[in-house]
């Protein structure tokens, strides 16, 4: 029981810290320390240290000797690379999943869609509840990769999804693409459940490309605005 409690605390600290980074509560480029986060979350430094180690493997922070950690700055080159790789991996994983999915797998995918719909129906939902929907949506892609049966593919895609999560949050929050994302996920799951590998793969690639194009528009708009301010000053 003690071990289970410890694991629950460790995972909850990791999830809380990751959410603060992905949603921008801790901005890119910020320096954070174990003491800062431990005080903020009212926990000891041990689970915080473990969370930082996991986040460094995810590529979301970089450790600095005797200086704590620096939150990764998400530049446009990292964005392009991450989504280019994700399109390839996500598409292939979805094709394999359509060929390999069992009835139990299909029930699991449908349940994740239902959870997204439940979270979407909450009146005046908070950013916390929105982030929960984001996590379920991202986890849907992880589960699809797991169903594919290719362990290496699954591990690689999970790593890329960690790096994409910040951009997906930006897209959903600022462009209000929540319903579009839910509808596209539903179409992908329908194709997997029907065993239509070609359609499932095509839908998954289009889903990733659409997200990429949306974020590119946002990044370009931010860049144009910064340039405008620089010229005006």
Global outline = globular
Q: H/E series, N to C?
A: HEHHEEHHHHHH
Q: What composes the largest sheet?
A: 3 strands, antiparallel
Radius of gyration: 19 Å
Number of helices: 9
What descriptive keywords fit this protein?
233 residues, mainly alpha, 3-stranded antiparallel beta sheet, 79% helix, globular
Structure report:
This protein is mainly alpha-helical and 233 residues long. Helices cover 79% and strands 4% of the residues. It has helices at 2-22, 34-41, 45-58, 76-100, 103-120, 127-147, 151-175, 178-193, 197-232; strands spanning 31-32, 61-64, 68-71. It has a three-stranded antiparallel sheet with strand order 1-3-2. Helix 8 runs antiparallel to helix 9 (197-232). The longest helix has 36 residues, at 197-232. The protein is globular.
List the helices and strands and how they pair.
Layout lengths: L1 H21 L8 E2 L1 H8 L3 H14 L2 E4 L3 E4 L4 H25 L2 H18 L6 H21 L3 H25 L2 H16 L3 H36 L1
Antiparallel strand pairs: 1-3, 2-3
Helix pairs in contact: 1-3, 2-3, 4-6, 4-7, 4-8, 4-9, 5-6, 5-8, 6-7, 7-9, 8-9
């Amino acid at each position: 029981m003690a071990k289970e409690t410890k694991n629950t605390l460790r995972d909850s600290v990791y999830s809380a810290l990751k959410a603060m980074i992905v949603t921008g509560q801790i901005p890119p480029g910020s320096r954070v320390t174990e003491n800062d986060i431990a005080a903020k979350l009212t926990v000891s430094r041990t689970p915080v240290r473990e969370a930082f180690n996991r986040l460094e493997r995810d590529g979301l922070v970089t450790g600095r000797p005797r200086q704590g950690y620096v939150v990764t700055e998400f530049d446009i080159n990292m964005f392009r690379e991450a989504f280019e790789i994700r399109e390839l991996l996500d598409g292939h994983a979805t094709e394999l999943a359509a060929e390999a999915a069992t009835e139990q797998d299909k029930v699991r995918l449908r349940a994740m869609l239902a959870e997204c719909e439940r979270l979407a129906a909450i009146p005046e939902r908070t950013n916390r509840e929105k982030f929960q929907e984001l996590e379920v949506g991202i986890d849907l892609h992880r589960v699809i990769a797991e169903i594919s049966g290719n362990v290496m593919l699954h591990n690689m895609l999970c790593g890329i999804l960690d790096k994409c999560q910040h951009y997906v949050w930006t897209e959903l929050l600022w462009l209000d693409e929540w319903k579009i994302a839910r509808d596209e996920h539903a179409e992908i799951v329908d194709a997997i459940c029907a065993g239509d590998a070609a359609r499932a793969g095509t839908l998954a690639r289009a889903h990733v490309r659409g997200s990429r194009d949306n974020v590119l528009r946002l990044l370009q708009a931010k860049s144009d605005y910064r340039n405008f301010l620089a010229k005006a000053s």
